[in-house]
Amino acid sequence: MTQPVRLDSATALRALADHPRYRYRGCAPDVDNPRMAAGDISVPVDSWQAPDLDGGEGLEARQAREAAAVEVCVGCPVMVQCLAYGSSLTPKGELAEEHAILGGLTSLERHRAFVEYKRVRETVARPEPAPVSQLRTRQKLAVLKALARFEEPEDVATAAGMDLRTAKWQIARLTTQLGLDKSAGRAELLAAAVERGLLEPADLPDVQPAPVPAAVPAAGCARAVQSRRRGRRVTVAPGQLAFFDFPDAPVPAARSSRAASVTTLFPNAPLEAAA
Length: 275
What we know:
The protein is mainly alpha-helical. It is 36% helix and 8% strand. A two-stranded antiparallel sheet has the order 1-2. The protein has a two-stranded antiparallel sheet with strand order 3-6. Strands 4-5 form a two-stranded antiparallel sheet.
């Protein structure tokens, strides 16, 4: 499947504005009556934008306005370039123009095409899963087991017995080699690891049986006990039972915060793809 590509907004706008017939575009103001469109003097020049009305525009009025504007677009000499700009993306990956009728498409039609473009792009960008033999390395398995217990990158690195940079690199490699999108989260990564047989379902925290805490009788005077898991100090008074859960795995001490170019949809348009 060929990945669809779109122009960046600056390139598309420049191609539209520099076109030799741009001055003859149908939505331009008529020379004799600037309030009406040059492509059809019965269509107001503001028909390509939704009016700012209290309560919004009525359905019939909107449909009539859009139909008249699209009819002008169909005969416009720069319709292809206009649609390329209407489908172009800003540096943030958003539509350059969200609300106007451009290139014969309404804002709703362009938005739907944009959603489909993103869906296809994500599908095409997803890599093929690597063979399991490439995933069963000592570091990758250690990172997966640590990731099943901890969420913080620092904790995962410590539990896996490696530095933070190596742990992050292995997580990124696992994401790619398991055939996941780069934006995949911890839950998706762990689920894919179980599916490929790299982890057992019992390794995941949400399917593990809750550990039974051990009852420790507190005898004598009150004493302070430090929990090895969370670093809490708990005062145990005489006659009380203190419950503690001490996991076998090493517990990290540090805690910190968690951390287009494009082929135009219009192949006949004389536009260059953005770098």
